[in-house]
Design goal:
The protein has 142 residues and is an alpha/beta fold. It has a domain at 14-64 and 96-139: Alpha-Beta Complex (Ribosomal Protein L13p, Chain: A). It has five helices and six strands, in the order E-H-E-H-E-E-H-H-H-E-E. The strands form two sheets. Strands 5-2-1-6 form a four-stranded parallel β-sheet, with helices on one face. A two-stranded antiparallel sheet has the order 3-4. It is globular.
Length: 142
């Protein structure tokens, strides 16, 4: 019995479109992270970047379940003393919902060059419009 391993030279990357409207932010991020890694493919190899391109639309219509809108905080640090900034999830989803989705996806990817390269293949849009019609993306249902 032999094992088939993916090779970088023979990869065929496809384009997928994921609609986040009315779906939980975290579940959408899990689906997108798996598509970016290539875990849905039969010849998935953990040490080869074999993922696809993903377009996420309607990130402003993604939902947060429970009390996350009020209790979840996003933190960032300026590097200066006392430079800790925090933003509530409600404000983040109103102003920068695409960035909130990007942070969720980034946390689910590996922390190495494969994860950093995979994050460059995701395209996030607040509305339903996107400029990638020429790539003929396939719809991916959650």
């Amino acid at each position: 019995m032999s094992t088939t391993l993916a090779k970088k030279e023979t990869l065929q990357r496809k384009w997928y479109i994921v609609d986040a409207a009315g779906k939980p932010l975290g579940r959408t991020a899990v689906t997108v992270a798996n598509l970016l890694r290539g875990k849905h493919k039969v010849d998935f190899t953990p040490n080869v970047d074999c993922g696809d391109y993903v377009i996420v639309i309607n990130t402003d219509k993604a939902i947060l379940t429970g009390k996350k809108l009020e209790q979840k905080h996003y933190y960032r640090v300026s590097g200066w003393i006392g430079g800790l900034k925090d933003t509530k999830a409600r404000d983040m989803m109103e102003k920068r919902s695409d960035y909130a989705m990007e942070l969720a996806i980034k946390g689910m990817l590996p922390k190495n060059t494969i994860g950093r390269n995979a994050l460059t293949r995701v395209h996030l849009y607040k509305g339903a419009e996107h400029p990638h019609a020429a790539q003929k993306p396939e719809a991916w249902t959650l």
